[in-house]
Amino acid sequence: MREVTLASVRVYARRYVAAVVAVTLAVAFIVTTNALTSATKAGLVADLGASFAGAEVVVTGAGSVGNAARLVDTADAAGGRAAVNALTWTSASVDGHVIADDAEIGTIASGAATGLRWQTLVDGAYPGPGEVAVDEQEATARGIAVGDTVTLGSGKDALELAVSGTVDSSTGPHGASAYVTWPDFAVVGSTGIVHDVVARGVSVDDLDAALPQRYGVQPVDDFLATAQKEMTRGVDVIAVMLLVFASIALFVSVLVIANTFTVLLAQRQRDFALLRCVGATRRQVLRAVRLEALLVGAGSATLGLLVGTLFGHGLVAAASALFPAVPVGAVELSPVWLGGGWLLGVLVTLSASLLPARRGSRVAPLAALRPDHAVVVRSRAGRGRIALAALALWVGSALLWLSITSHQLAPMLAGGFVSFVGILLLGPIVVPLAIRLVGVVLGRVAGTAGRLAVANAVRNPRRTAATTASLLVGVTLITGMVVGMATIRTNVDQEMDQQYPLDLTLTGSQVLDGGLADDVRAIAGVEAVQPVGGGTVELRGKGLDLGATTVLAPPSDVRGIVRGDHAFVHPGPDEVYLPWEAYNASGYSEGMTVAAVVDGEKTVLKARVADGIGDVAVVAPETLDGLVTSTAERALWIRVDDGADAEDVTGALAALARATDTEASGGFPDRAWVDLQLDVMLGAVVAMLAVGVVIAVVGVGSTLGLSVLERTREHALLRALGLTRRRLRFTLSAEAVLLAGVAGVLGAALGTVYAWIGVEAVVGEAIGQVSLVVPWAQVVLVAVAAAVAGLLAGVLPSRRAATVSPAAGLAAD
Q1: CA–CA separation, 496 vs 128, rounded Å?
Q2: Which ranges does the record mark as transmembrane (predicted)?
């Protein structure tokens, strides 16, 4: 039987293409995931270790800047040298122009501790007291050069520093936009975060003995080992998420492989019968089929390892070239991942072939003596299948309802899986019914060829359902993600509208130049610009002197600029709107009053709060007229196109602000960043789900191809009765489109329902009332793409069928 099995694999190798592709892609997915996670871990570990170059001892637990200073003194007293790794966030301006409200400032070792300096000098010199070194990429982006003056912070804690040079620094936890010496950091970053204190020239025991027990003192190697483990834990979470998509691909592979074996073994019933006639037992036939499946699975899994290895290395190399700032290390494939992926590929193939193999080995020996007609099995879904499907749908629906009411992820995932299994069990009933409904239209439009396509598609309900099941999984998941992300995006945009009503603003302490609005309109990506009049008014609050403040009075037609509905657009005559920062600094609460002082006269206004208006106050035009003798353009409120590049627009506006002595601010960069994250997330998920769709499409093409071989005599008879090659190709292509199109439509409908449930369960509690948003164009595109994929899958089988002459087809065995 071994020779028979090997001969069968050689003879029927081309018919196993779908199974080979399915297993290869699924295993390659697993190997690629291992390549990406290993490279990411290596990059993170190397990046973390870079900031501890030269260190021998690490002290943790300092917490505050004051404690860190005492730790440095203790290390110096013990005969060593110490440096502090700390970060703070503060405003930064260059030559008087604000470039960032929350620039990230780090520390750089200096003086006797230069051996602990880990930043690499690119240009200029390392900073000393009163100097700052700027990260090379930040300097390029901000237009900062050696010799410029940078002001960090504001008020009495502001520090003017000269740019001594640029450095290449880590993107790890200690990486920052600029670096100052420890004495300067103690001034500007007094409330910053102290990560750790590093030292050299002193032993762990000596330093530990000199410090209170609340501090942790470790050798640098031990500290890095623990930190690396914590840091890479997030990568492990990502790996698990990627393996979820690999599991989906494997599940689709099971459906495709099972269908392939079912069709193929049904076609080989006469071969099995002949084997039984010459003395082979049923167990030997079953063992031969399982061995055949083992060989297919082992070969496919091995091919998957090769494909995944090549693709993983290529993907990491491309990421390193395209995103040099992202820490990516070398690929180190794990034997556990490789062995596990290979074993999964083999097990998937074997498990998917079990039922078809058992069914195929039951053929009676006398079946070989019967005429070998085309196999037409009019199987129907039995009562047991319907009962099991109803039970699965009931249990799944109950779990989904529980997830909506409890906002928990676990019952949502379980309910989605169980209910979808119920839908798959109803496939032999639902899918043929849907095809017949569509076929009514197709039969009227395409005539006999269309009716033949419908009849062929539904002649075997179980095979039809199995063929569409794999594609149904992929389309449902993709549609669910598209609809879910569109719903989340809409709700997030509404929240962003409340936090960032103004995309960008340009505000001056004096009257703006008359041509400035036209210069802003000329920036690519700017949709609209609204000049806003204002003046300078001294505002005083309870125990707080706000000082001379720019007070704006928006015109009545400004709603086209402002996103969302906000009260500050039309303030009351006795109201003044201030940013949240004013309240946080003064301890104000909603409803308190502010005094506007002009020439010694006070006008009391009701204090209100507004998000995203910048460092200004907003009043009604009539209120402003009563406070100042004349108004002029003091600000520009800017609306940006939704698809504009945030860096280009804000960069151009910042350059314009520096040239005109104005201040640029606004929430568009934050809005664009959130939109980018959602786009990247959706693109990544759809791309990973596309692996399962590709496997499903290959399965549709393979099943149709096997069916074509099975119906060779039938097609030959149709040709002999007058059906042209062109009409035969149309019939088979229409059959493929019907299968894929119905799967696409059903998947789009199911995906929309699952998306609504998922959004309600996952983010409903955080967002509140969730309104389902269906991007109809994208949903229709997914369904149409499925139908087109089916059409492409049917090209080769239909062309092959049309090339067989009627005489050759009727004479085929």
Answers
A1: 42
A2: 12-31, 237-266, 293-316, 336-355, 386-404, 416-443, 464-488, 680-709, 730-756, 776-796
DSSP string, 486-516: HHHHHHHHHHHHHH---SEEEE-SSPPPTTH
Q: How far is CA 143 from CA 154, 204, 269, in A?
A: 21, 44, 76
My answer on whether 143 and 227 are in the same domain is no
Count the alpha carbons within 13 Å of 305 in the hemisphere toward its beta carbon.
19
What gap in Å lies between CA 803 and CA 813, rounded to an integer? 17
Helices (H), 608-710: 621-627, 646-660, 668-710
**Crossing angle for the helix pair 409-425 and 427-446, nearest 10 degrees?**
60
Say whether 646 sits in a helix, a strand or coil: helix
Task: Give residue 262's domain range.
Answer: 1-55+218-372
Same domain, 30 and 149: no
**SS3 for 269-287, per residue?**
HHHHHHHHHCCCCHHHHHH
Q: What is the pLDDT of residue 378?
A: 43
Return the number of other C-beta atoms located less than 10 Å from residue 129's C-beta.
12
d(CA 218, CA 199): 11
**Phi/psi of residue 319, nearest 5 degrees:** -65, -40
Q: Are residues 507 and 649 in the same domain?
A: yes
Closest-CA residue to 760 (of 420, 415, 471): 415
Q: What is the pLDDT of residue 377?
A: 39
Q: Are 31 and 304 in contact (CB under 8 A)?
A: yes
Phi, psi of 746 (to 5 degrees): -65, -40
- Rounded to whole angstroms, the Cα distance separating 50 from 105 reads 18
Distance in angstroms (rounded) separating the CA atoms of residues 550 and 546: 11
Q: Which pLDDT does position 767 carry in this prediction?
A: 61
Residues 438 and 528 in one domain: no
Q: Are strands 216-219 and 193-200 parallel, antiparallel or unpaired?
A: unpaired
Helices (H) and strands (E) in the chain, counts: 27, 19
- DSSP per-residue string spanning 751-769: HHHHHHHHHHHHTHHHH-S
**pTM of the predicted structure, to 2 decimals:** 0.72
User: For the chain, how many structural domains are there in total?
Assistant: 4
User: What is the Cα 436 distance to its own chain's centre?
Assistant: 39
What pLDDT is attached to residue 547?
75
The last residue of a domain, from among 199, 214, 229: 214
- The C-alpha atoms of residue 390 and residue 423 are separated, in whole angstroms, by 9
pLDDT tens per residue across span 397-441? 999 999 888 888 889 889 999 999 999 989 888 999 999 998 888
Q: Give CA–CA dist 219/200, Å, rounded.
A: 10
List, in order, residues 6 or more apart from 580 with CB less than 8 Å away.
609, 611
Residues 6+ apart with CB under 8 A from 66: none
Q: Are residues 566 and 620 in the same domain?
A: yes
What's the CA gap between 610 and 552, in Å, rounded? 13
Cα 764 → chain centroid = 20
Buried b or exposed e, range 715-736, using 16+ CB within 10 angstroms: bbebbeeebeeebbbbbbbbbb
Question: Which pLDDT value is given to residue 809?
Answer: 67
> Which pLDDT score is estimated for 374?
42
Beta-bridged to residue 89, according to DSSP, are 104
Q: Tens digits of per-residue pLDDT, 666-723?
A: 888 888 888 877 787 777 778 777 877 887 888 788 777 777 777 778 878 888 888 8
Task: Tell me which residues of the chain have a pLDDT lower than 70.
Answer: 1-9, 11-12, 44, 47, 96-98, 155-157, 170-172, 190-191, 231-238, 241-242, 267, 323-327, 360, 363, 366-382, 543-546, 581-591, 764-770, 809, 811-813
- Please say whether the beta carbons of 48 and 234 come within 8 A: no
- Spatial separation of the C-alpha atoms in residues 61 and 536, rounded to whole Å: 47
How far is Cα 631 from Cα 635, in angstroms, rounded to an integer? 12
| DSSP letter, residue 597 | E
Query: What was the pLDDT predicted at 743?
Result: 92
- Is 699 within 8 Å of 26 (Cβ atoms)? no
